[in-house]
Design a protein that fits this description.
It contains 17 helices and 8 strands. Helix 8 packs parallel to helix 9 and helix 16 runs antiparallel to helix 17. Helix 10 links the parallel strand 5 and strand 6. Helix content is 46%, strand content 14%. It has 338 residues and is α/β, with parallel strands linked by helices. It has an 8-stranded parallel beta sheet with strand order 1-2-3-4-5-6-7-8. Bound molecules: hypoxanthine (HPA) and zinc ion. The site of hypoxanthine has 11 residues, from helix 3. Its cofactor is Zn(2+).
Length: 338
C-alpha cells in the first residue's frame, strides 16, 4: 500500500513553523498514554480523530494542551521528535526550526530539562538518522503573564547552546506582542533570534508591533497583513519572511476554503512567503502535503513552488552554517518538478 506520505512533493525545503507538540499523532498519543499509565478521555484513535473539528484557534488549543498529558519522560519527547523527523524527511524537509512550548510542560510538572534533553536526543543525531538539520525555538505562551515568560527564559539558561531563538504562540487576540517587550529584550541580549506569531487571528497591528516592539526577524502566519496595503508594502520592502500554514488556516477557519487562500496574491505582491505545516497531526498534513495542496488547489506552478522552497532556506537561521544553506539552495534550483 502506498502511504499518503510517499506521494507528497519532495522538493527540498525548510520547515520554519512547526510545533513539535502538534506532531503528536493519535496512534503515538495512545502508545505514550499506555506506556505512562495516563488515561485519555477517548475510546480509541478514531474517537480522538473525531474531536479534530475545530471552530477556531482556541478550540484547537484546548485539545492540543489536553493531549500533552501523555508526554512525561525524555524518551517521550525523543520518540515524538523522531517520528516527526522521519515523516518530514520523507516529504523533502531538509532543515527544520522546531517550536516547543515549555510552559505547557512545566505547568504539568515536566521540567525544562526533560523537554530539552529529550528533544535533543533526537535532534542531536537528526542529520545522521534523518538527513535533516535542525534548530530549536522556545515559544512563550502569550495567554500567560509576562512574568511567567521571564521565568521561562531564566529556566532555559542552562540550555542556550541548544536553543537558537524565541517565539510567541497560543491564544493571540487580547495578547498583543508589546506585552512581551521585556522578555524579548532579554532574549536578544542573550544572543537569541526572535520570531512571533502575529496576524493569524489577531489584527494587522500585531504584526507591526511584533516588528517594532519585539524586533522579530520573521512573522509566523502574518496572514492578516493583506488587510493593510501599507503594511504589505513595508513587509515587501524589508523582505520580512512570513511562515504561512495553509492547511492550518483552513482547519482553524482563518480562511473559509483553501481555494480562497490569499497565498497566490501574496506572492504576486512580492511578499517573502514560506509554506509550513504548523501542527500537522491536527491539521491534515505535513510540509509536503501543504506544498501539494497549494499546487493542486491554488494552481501554483513550478516557479512559484521553487520560490517558496528557496524562501524557506533564505529565511532559515543558518547564518552559522552558510555552506549548508548554499547546498540546500542549489538543490532547490536543480529540482525538476516534472
Ligand atoms: N497558533 C498559535 N499557537 C499555537 C499554534 C497556532 O497555530 N499551534 C500551537 N500553538
Ligand atoms: Zn503556529
Amino acid at each position: 500500500m502506498i502511504s499518503p506520505y510517499d506521494i507528497s512533493m519532495p522538493v527540498p525545503k525548510a520547515e520554519l513553523h512547526l510545533h513539535i507538540e502538534g506532531t503528536l499523532e493519535p496512534e503515538l498519543a495512545f502508545a505514550l498514554a499506555a506506556r505512562n499509565g495516563v488515561e485519555l478521555p477517548y475510546a480509541d484513535t478514531d474517537a480522538l480523530r473525531e474531536a479534530y473539528r475545530f471552530q477556531d484557534l482556541q478550540s484547537f488549543l484546548n485539545l492540543y494542551y489536553e493531549l500533552m498529558a501523555v508526554l512525561r519522560t525524555e524518551r517521550d519527547f525523543e520518540d515524538l521528535a523522531d517520528a516527526y523527523l522521519a515523516r518530514a524527511a520523507a516529504q523533502g524537509v531538509r532543515h527544520v526550526e522546531i517550536f516547543f512550548d515549555p510552559q505547557a510542560h512545566i505547568a504539568r510538572g515536566v521540567g525544562m530539562d526533560t523537554v530539552v534533553e529529550g528533544l535533543w536526543r533526537a535532534l542531536g543525531r537528526s542529520r545522521e538518522t534523518h538527513g535533516v538539520s535542525t534548530r530549536l525555538i522556545m515559544c512563550f505562551l502569550r495567554d500567560e503573564s509576562a512574568g511567567s515568560a521571564l521565568a521561562t527564559l531564566d529556566a532555559a539558561k542552562p540550555y542556550l547552546d541548544r536553543i537558537t531563538g524565541v517565539g510567541l504562540d497560543s491564544a493571540e487576540v487580547g495578547h498583543p506582542p508589546a506585552k512581551f517587550r521585556e522578555v524579548y529584550e532579554a532574549a536578544a541580549a542573550l544572543g537569541l533570534r526572535r520570531v512571533a506569531h502575529a496576524g493569524e487571528e489577531g489584527p494587522p497591528e500585531y504584526i507591526t508591533e511584533a516588528l517594532d516592539v519585539l524586533g522579530v526577524e520573521r512573522i509566523d502566519h502574518g496572514l492578516r497583513c493583506v488587510e493593510d496595503p501599507a503594511l504589505v508594502e513595508r513587509l515587501v520592502r524589508e523582505r520580512v519572511p512570513l511562515t504561512l500554514c495553509p492547511l492550518s488556516n483552513v482547519r482553524l477557519r482563518t480562511v473559509d476554503v483553501l481555494a480562497g487562500h490569499p497565498l497566490p496574491a501574496m506572492l504576486d505582491a512580492g511578499l517573502m512567503c514560506t509554506v509550513n505545516s504548523d501542527d500537522p497531526a491536527y491539521f491534515g498534513g505535513y510540509a509536503g502535503d501543504n506544498f501539494d495542496a497549494v499546487r493542486d488547489v491554488l494552481g501554483l506552478g513550478a516557479e512559484r513552488l521553487r520560490e517558496l522552497a528557496r524562501n524557506s532556506f533564505l529565511a532559515s537561521f543558518l547564518e552559522d552554517e552558510e555552506e549548508l544553506r548554499a547546498r540546500y539552495l542549489s538543490e532547490v534550483e536543480a529540482y525538476d518538478f516534472g
